[in-house]
Structures are given as structure tokens and as C-alpha cells.
Amino acid sequence: MNRRSFLKTLALAGTLAVPGAGAARAETGGRVELATLLDLSRCVGCGECVAACRDANAAKFPEPERPFPKMYPARVRAEDWSARRDEDGRLTPYNWLTIQTAVVERDGRELEVHIPRRCMHCVNPPCANLCPWGAAYKRADGAVRINDAICLGGAKCRDVCPWGIPQRQTGVGLYLDLLPALAGNGVMYKCDRCHQRLDAGQQPACIEACPMQVQSIGPREEMAARARKLAAETGGHLYGLEENGGTNTFYVSPVPFEELDRAVAQGPGRPHLRPVADVMARDEAFTAAVFGAPLAGLAAGLLTAARGLARSGRGAGEGGHD
Predict the structure, then answer these.
(1) How far apart are CA 61 and CA 94, in angstroms?
(2) Which residues 6+ apart lie within 8 Å of 67 measured at CB?
């Protein structure tokens, strides 16, 4: 997709966010939902995308306050990555894009496949539908964001994400101004598809920085058609088109994803590559979303107001010391 076409698509897509739980089901008002296509046969694992992501989003990274409040119950532990900001071997609050490498045998020789991993930006994201505070939401252009101004770090988004993508940093966020021992444990962070760059008519940093043109971005239907065509022409394999009911991240790999899944390191911050059923198709998830959305919307409004009061209080406190 050339720059002129991309800018035209952005103009159609708009950039208005739809706040609150249930945003994934909101009407897009004619705006175009964008998706990314990653051709894994092109990726050499150079890490340029990882570095570009960090540079572009550094202003959003957390700066925690210490000492951390003691949490109740005691089993709730702090998650602190502030001393390990350079960690790039997994997803963290300071590393929203990581590269997994799988070494597999094909045609009698070893083949390395590098897989850039970050938020899949699901079409119907459970994180946005099931966040009890309305902090996670889906934009009209398909990007899924977490509002760090009202996120309490309860990690519901990570619990319901099939890939466990969002990561928590303790000692930052609104919970410090509410009931720090009880109300959450920080803020959750993940890829937001460089929304600030999209708003300015630019491509996400990882796409722009890649020297191998691994990724492309465009309207979801167009990207899905390109992904199917690429897979058919190369004998490749698709991931992300149907997973979790459909995502806005499509991978095309020369190796079946079940083989890649067995070969990549997995664990916290290291997502799997297994097939994923539609989380929101489950009765309990759907029911929770339907009945929880109004409460989450109310909670988002209350937390936004609380954020304003907290800022006012801090400003008055600081002013009193002058």
C-alpha cells in the first residue's frame, strides 16, 4: 500500500475512540477498520521494528512511584519492570513488540522463522468487552487501546486475552490516588498500533522502520484478501484471520503454525501460536459483556472524574508548598 493510498484510508478510517466496555460492538459509522499483514518469509529478526516501537512510544512508558503500596490480600504481588526496561526477549510494559524465533526442519535442513509478536487487535476483543472499569476499548480504525488514565491494573484484560498480551507495571496510575492497598495494582500496557502516528497520517513505527517490508497495513477486507492470496501463491499458512473470531493481525508463514508453536519459547510475555476459539462466543463471556457494559461505562466515567479530582488535589498540594 503506497503512502497516498494509506493516507486516503486513514482519512476514511477516522480516529475517534469509542470509550468504555462494549466498544468492540460499537458502530464504526462508516470508518474503515485497518489490519496488518506480516509475511514471515521476509523477516530476518533484525529487531529494527522492536527498536522503532520503543522510540515511538517511549513517552507513554510508566514512571512508577516508590515505595509500592502493600497489597491486600498478600498474594497480590507487585510487577515491576522499571529496572529491566531494556528487556526485549518478551513483552513487558516497556517492550510492546518482541520477536519469537522458531528453528524447524524443512526439506532436510534447518530453517529459522522469526515472528514479530504484539497485540493481535481482535475484531471483537474480550479485553475491551470484559474490562470491568471500561479502561480497554476498540477504536473505529480497529486498534485496541488501554486508557492508562483510568486503568487500575487489575489484569482482567490479560486474563481474558487468549495470548496473555497486556503487561502490568505496579506503582503507577489512578489506583495510587484511590485505595492503593485494595483498588488495583498499577496499569496494564500493550501495543496500541501507534495511534498517535495514525492520527498524524503516518504508519505505525514498526512498519515504517522494517528494512525487509515484512508488514503492510490497510483496510481489513483488502488485507485479508492479500493474506489469502499470498498463502495460496506460496503454499504458506495463515494465522490470525479466524483466531478468536478474527483479528486485525494476519501472519503468513512458510511453516505450519503448529510447528512454529512447538518451536518457540513460551510463557509470560511470550505468546503461543495455537488455534484460538472465539472467547466472546462463550455464553458466560457474552453475558458478562452484555450486562457488564453499562456498569463498565459508568465506572469509566467515575474513574475519569476521580482522575480529575486527584490531579486537582495534587496540584493544590504542590501549590501549597510554594
Answers:
(1) 6
(2) none
Q: Is the pTM value of this prediction over 0.90?
A: no
Tell which residue, 36, 303, 315, 38, has the closest CA to residue 146.
303
Q: Which of 8, 53, 63, 10 lies closest to 198 in space, CA to CA?
A: 10
The pairing of beta strand 34-39 with beta strand 249-253: parallel
Measured from the Cβ of residue 147, the count of other Cβ atoms closer than 10 Å reads 21
**Cβ burial, residue 106 (10 Å; 0-12/13-18/19+):** exposed
> 290 by DSSP, 3-state: which?
helix
Alpha helices in 146-251 (DSSP H): 156-160, 195-199, 205-209, 220-234
218-237 tens-digit pLDDT? 999 999 999 999 999 999 99
- Give the chain's end-to-end CA distance (angstroms, integer): 55
